[in-house]
Design a protein that fits this description.
The protein has helices spanning 2-39, 51-62, 68-86, 91-94, 98-101, 105-116, 118-132, 138-156, 176-179, 182-206, 209-235, 255-258, 264-275, 299-308, 433-448, 494-498, 501-534; strands spanning 245-250, 283-285, 314-323, 330-338, 344-349, 386-387, 395-399, 418-423, 452-456, 461-464, 470-474, 480-485. With 535 residues, it is α/β, with parallel strands linked by helices. The protein has 2 domains: 13-236 and 501-526, no CATH class; 245-359 and 369-494, 4-Layer Sandwich (Nitrilase/N-carbamoyl-D-aminoacid amidohydrolase). The chain has a 6-stranded mixed sheet. The N and C termini lie far apart (64 Å). Keywords: Acyltransferase, Cell inner membrane, Cell membrane, Lipoprotein, Membrane, Transferase, Transmembrane, Transmembrane helix. It is found in: Cell inner membrane; Cell membrane. Belongs to the CN hydrolase family. Apolipoprotein N-acyltransferase subfamily. The chain crosses the membrane at residues 31-56, 68-91, 103-128, 134-152, 184-206, 213-234, 501-523. It is an enzyme of class 2 (transferase).
């Protein structure tokens, strides 16, 4: 009996310890999920800046003393909260044809959110491994977290064609001076700075004494530096306005009606009517697939367009295209330019297609239908291209989804003067999706130093200047036009010139500075100790 009692005394503490560890992990995963959900409120249209340090500091503190595997789970819970709420609007697209795809909405969004949550999980696990391998001061720990987070975001923007949606730096977008740093280091660099400053309060909470004060002052200095750099950028000179007048047409055609054969004439007539409202313009802009058919094959439709284009005006419109080939007909999602005679001047084919929306990956193995109507999968175009139109500034085209990719919108060899973003956000109704999509277009304007002009079927057409400021807009559900002058461009930004090499330079410079400061402080402590002993 005595031996059995002794054995029970040994086993019970082990069981209790395991229960305590599981309870602590579950608590931290819950904290991570809530913190991840809070990040949604930091992005447009909410842009609650005070929640940025709350969310990321909560994750930073919650990862302390965790193993690689447990940190991965906490980071995954954070990502599940972030994406589960942040991209819930994707479900709207499944209900456009609810009889065919409605039952897939919740499983699809849940599965996608769970998959995307792997990237915050990678960041958390990487941070835990870095800090486990060596003792770090508060500053180095914050840099390790920001670096890990940025690496994971960069991977999310590139792996399996990428999905760089709601990057951490977009929390600064609605604050004019704060977003300008993207002109130097791009969106990923802006995320690095945002997350680094955001976790400093968490590090201050975990620190003590003089170190707490140092970390707190570092957070204030970081905010001040980002604001100062942005203010300086806003005050710098831009190029002269090009003197070009634009007309953006937002037809506001419900997605469920757009491709119905009986609605084709009404859709086309609406765009023609809005295009001919009184007013002067040089360039007429219609959104993605504004014409529900193959316009280059429709002589009558092009003649009606020509009647609306007078005095050398040009139309840029989204339109599907098809080309015969040896392997059968190939379909493209394009923007085509037409002159006042109805002649096609030039065109651009979308190169970054939406998986399951414009093509089905691994079609030979996945028995899944596309969400969008059409005769076949779209074929990607060759890549970013600058279009030359007679008498007009050079223009780059980004169709819908393409505008979300940092550094992949503009042809590096032939820099344009502006970017035309033709899109169709009718898929997502009145959700926060169109606002988040607009946010990507605004940050591209800052990165490239170029105005971005959006024409949407509905939600949200806009004129965005080279500083990311919205000059004019038409909201979701509105039918109408925007008449505006084309804003001026800036000289090429550092990010436009060097791309994500600027991110690498920022990270290396930050670590070099921090390690030097850490080594200097350590040397001073050692010297003081030696002098005290010798004295």
């Amino acid at each position: 009996m005595d031996q059995r009692a002794a054995s029970d005394q040994i086993v019970k503490p082990e069981i209790l310890n395991r229960i305590a560890l599981r309870h602590r992990l579950l608590s931290r995963m819950t904290l991570g999920f809530v913190a991840g959900a809070l990040t949604v409120l930091t992005f447009p249209p909410f842009s609650l800046l005070l929640l940025v340090p709350v969310a990321y500091s909560a994750l930073f503190v919650g990862l302390r003393d965790l193993s690689f595997g447990r940190a991965f789970l906490v980071g995954w819970a954070f990502g599940l909260g972030q994406f589960g709420f942040g991209i819930s609007w994707i479900a709207e697209s499944f209900y456009v044809e609810d009889r065919r795809f409605g039952t897939m909405a919740i499983p699809a969004v849940t599965g996608l959110s769970a998959g995307l949550a792997i990237f915050p999980a990678i960041a958390a696990a990487l941070f835990a491994e870095i800090t486990r391998r060596g003792a770090m001061g508060s500053l180095l720990a914050c840099l390790a977290f920001a670096t890990s987070w940025t690496v994971a975001e960069w991977l999310r923007g590139h792996v399996l064609t990428g999905f760089p949606w709601n990057l951490a730096g977009y929390a600064l977008l609605d604050y004019a001076a704060l977003r300008q740093t993207a002109a130097w280091v791009g969106s990923y660099g802006l995320s690095f700075l945002t997350v680094f400053v955001a976790v400093l309060p968490g590090a201050a909470v975990m620190a003590s004494g003089r170190q707490r004060l140092t970390v707190s002052l570092m957070a204030l200095a970081g905010i001040a530096a980002i604001w100062a750099v942005g203010t300086l950028h806003l005050q710098s000179d831009t190029q002269q306005p090009p003197g070009v007048d634009l007309r953006i047409v937002q037809g506001n055609i419900p997605q469920g009606e757009k491709w119905a054969p009986e609605n084709r004439e009404a859709t086309f007539a609406r765009y023609l009517e809005l295009s001919t409202w009184p007013g002067d313009f040089d360039v007429l802009l219609w959104p993605e697939t504004a014409f529900p058919g193959f316009l280059d094959e429709d002589t009558e439709a092009r003649a009606r367009i020509a009647a609306a284009l007078q005095d050398g005006r040009v139309l840029l419109t989204g339109v599907p295209d098809r080309v015969p080939s040896e392997d059968g007909t190939r379909y493209f999602n394009t923007v085509q330019a037409f002159d006042e005679t109805g002649r096609i001047l030039t065109g651009y084919a979308k190169h970054h297609l939406v998986p399951f929306g414009e093509y089905v990956p691994f079609r030979g193995w996945l028995p899944i239908e596309r969400l969008t109507a059409g005769l076949g999968d779209f074929t990607p175009g060759p890549g970013p291209r600058t279009l030359a139109l007679p008498g007009l500034p050079l223009v780059a085209v980004a169709i819908c989804y393409e505008i979300i990719f940092p550094g992949h919108v503009v042809d590096d060899l032939f820099r344009p003067d502006w970017v035309f973003n033709a899109t169709n956000d009718a898929w997502f109704g009145t959700s926060i999706g169109p606002e988040q999509h607009l946010a990507s277009a605004r940050i591209r304007a800052v990165e490239e130093g170029l105005p971005v002009i959006r024409a949407a079927n509905t939600g949200i057409s806009a004129v965005i200047d080279a500083n990311g400021e919205i000059v004019a807009r038409l909201d979701t559900g509105e039918t109408g036009i925007i008449d505006a002058s084309l804003p001026s461009a800036r000289p090429p930004t550092l990010y436009a010139s060097f791309g994500d090499w600027m991110l690498l330079a920022l990270i290396l410079a930050s670590w070099s500075w921090a390690l030097t400061a850490n080594a200097t402080a350590h040397y001073r402590r050692m010297r003081k100790t030696v002098m005290q002993r010798s004295g």
